[in-house]
Known about the structure:
With 66 residues, this protein is mainly β. It has one domain.
Amino acid sequence: MRATVGDQLVQHGRVVGQHDKVGEIVEVLGEGGNPPYRVRFEDGHEGVCSPGPDTEIRHRETTTGP
């Protein structure tokens, strides 16, 4: 799993009724885009995460100029 600053980390709910937790990666602490990541979640909480199997990385879209 590799990520860059600005990508989203999504922790999927594990039980029925539990919502996904979405955060923005603000720092990559591992080498070459590997975990752990410092993540700022939607509620303002910040923490260091080493993603598990219930987590996905949504890469930010990069646009190239004309």
